[in-house]
Specification:
The structure is a single chain. This protein is α+β, with helices and mostly antiparallel strands. The protein contains 8 helices and 21 strands. The chain folds into 3 domains: 1-87, Beta Barrel (OB fold (Dihydrolipoamide Acetyltransferase, E2P)), CATH 2.40.50; 95-149, Dihydrolipoamide Transferase; 180-399, Chloramphenicol Acetyltransferase (2-Layer Sandwich).
């Protein structure tokens, strides 16, 4: 019996997608839940699993095709047996001779992730049918590995680059823009064209936070099993500032202003596909340990391209940290329909005058970009000053004052 394999259901915010990879070809044996193909949208990459065991008999939409939600993608003959050995996407991993690999089935997405992260099959316990190793099993194994091997080069795009020469005879490479990069470009232009965006700056003495972090980092990590970074301090400080300046946590919809009674903070993180902004929901109800753990989880998912639509949708305010790349000062662009974004930067020792004396302090420039249609300059400055005050006196973060 032949059954259809359809494109996964896209959320309302996603119109269509592109088939970027087929992991199986017609005539290949497939198992239920095995990843057949990957579809890239302007937000995330969807994996298309096999609905039943059988043989892939027909591919309707090839790599590079634009597809819609629930569109017919391929067909499978249920419970059939392939007449030829199933093709494998990558060469088998080199493992220890003693590793029990002979009878272990590995899903293509799991095999690729194992190769990228240098994970041996002996380190992974399969949870799929008959002990089959799934992508989720590899992600669990990665979390348990103390130090991962360097990642292998990323798989080339399905559409090869075109190498040409310009009028002067010098080589140039032309590659299609990914859907995510195209969407980023679209949203950046939208923010600049549809908002009256301004940026205000300030600087913060990071010494109090650094001393507090150094004093309690070891106990924090031992108690909560998560590293204490700077981001949780900034998130907590931002929430308290948003409570005092509600307009920064608001958005414009038509001729109305929507004041949000919740605090969903987007954290900009880099991924192999570009910048993504997963959202911490109801962050005012989260502890610093929960914030750090969630940020770590999002960073891992961003690298593994496993963030869901729900995890990167919405948000009432955004924080971005260009300092991790060495940025000293920048003007971050707001993420529509939000009305504000906070930019963190590199920490550097600078000579500062304190009580009439010159002292060396670890200073960071802060930038607050805002939509001037909704937020007055006074409010924007007060918001940033509030964050500065809380970071320079971290006890205020705990006391919420």
């Amino acid at each position: 019996m032949a059954i259809d394999v359809n494109v996964p259901s896209f959320p309302e915010s996603v119109a269509d997608g592109s088939v970027i990879a087929w992991h199986k070809q017609p005539g290949d044996q497939v198992s239920r839940d095995e990843v057949l193909a990957e579809i890239e949208t302007d937000k995330v990459v969807f994996e298309v699993p096999a609905p039943e065991d059988g043989v892939l008999t027909e591919i309707i939409e090839n790599e590079g095709a634009t597809v819609l939600s629930q569109q017919l993608l391929a067909r499978i003959e249920v419970d059939a047996v392939a007449s030829k050995p199933a093709a494998t996407e990558t060469a088998p991993l080199a493992v220890d001779d003693k590793a029990p690999t002979a009878d272990v089935a590995i899903a293509p997405a799991a095999r690729k992730l194992m190769a990228d992260k240098g994970i041996d099959v002996a380190q992974v316990t399969g949870s799929g049918k008959g002990g089959r190793i799934l992508k989720e099993d590899v992600l669990k194994a990665i979390d348990n590995v103390p130090a991962a091997k360097p990642a292998a080069p990323a798989k080339a795009a399905s559409v090869p680059p075109v190498v040409t020469e310009n009028l002067e005879g010098r080589p140039e490479k032309r590659v299609p823009m990914s859907r995510l990069r195209a969407r980023i470009a679209e949203r950046l232009l939208e923010a600049q064209h549809n908002a009256a965006m301004l940026t205000t700056f300030n600087e913060v003495n990071m010494k109090p936070v650094m001393e507090l972090r150094a004093r309690h980092r070891e106990a924090f990590e031992k108690t909560h099993d998560v590293r204490l970074g700077f981001m949780s301090f900034f998130v907590k400080a931002a929430v308290e500032a948003l409570k005092q300046i509600p307009a920064v946590n608001a958005s414009i919809e038509g001729s109305d202003v929507i004041y949000h009674g919740f605090y969903d903070i987007g954290i900009a993180v880099s991924s192999p596909r570009g910048l993504v902004v997963p959202v911490l929901r109801d962050v005012d109800q989260m502890s610093m340990a929960e914030i750090e753990a969630k940020i770590r989880e999002y960073a891992q998912k961003a690298q593994n391209k496993s963030l869901s639509i729900e995890e990167i949708s919405g948000g009432t305010f955004t924080i971005t940290n260009g300092g991790v790349f060495g940025s000293m000062l920048s003007t971050p662009i707001i993420n529509p329909p939000q009305s504000g974004i906070l930019g963190m930067h590199n920490i550097q020792d600078r000579a500062m005058v304190v009580d009439g004396e010159v002292v060396v302090l670890p200073m960071m420039y802060l930038a607050h970009s805002y939509d001037h249609r909704l937020i007055d300059g006074r409010e924007a400055v007060q918001f940033l000053v509030k964050i500065k005050e809380m970071l320079e006196d971290p006890a205020r973060i705990l006391l919420e004052v």
